[in-house]
Amino acid sequence: MRHSRNNDLTDRRSAAADAKAALLMAYRAAKTAAEPSQAARQAERVSLVEAREARRAQRERLKVEERARIETLAAQERAATEAAAAAEIEARQSAQNARIARVVQDEAARKAERDRRYAARKARQA
After folding, report:
1. What count of other Cβ atoms lies within 10 Å of the Cβ of residue 78?
2. How many CA atoms lie within 13 A of 52 on its CB side?
3. DSSP helix/strand/coil, 69
4. What is the pLDDT of residues 35-66, one digit of tens each?
5. CA 23 to CA 19: how far, in whole Å?
6. 32: helix, coil or strand?
7. Could you say which DSSP state residue 4 is in?
8. Measured distance CA(40)–CA(61) in Å, rounded
9. Global model pTM greater than 0.70
10. Positive or negative CA dihedral for 8, 13, 14, 19?
């Protein structure tokens, strides 16, 4: 059998309004019930953002420190290379000066020997 209920327009409108009011009340109740957990979630989000920013700042600081360390090592390496090059140039100059001194000494000894022979020959002739 069919329901013999007579639903007039006013009955349907009032039922819809009551249903909307019930939904609104349920929403407000759920919102107020969820308020502490929402604040906790918001606080958790804030703490996560702060932790993320702290980690990012730490990474940036480590990058800067690493870059500075690498630059320092490169500067030390350049200084060592320049010092080695200067030492090598000095050693070459010193060796060249020693060769020149030996040549001059040998030339002086050769001249002294020549002068001695010349003096000995003149002594024999006289």
Report:
1. 10
2. 6
3. helix
4. 878 878 888 999 999 999 999 999 999 999 99
5. 6
6. helix
7. -
8. 31
9. no
10. positive
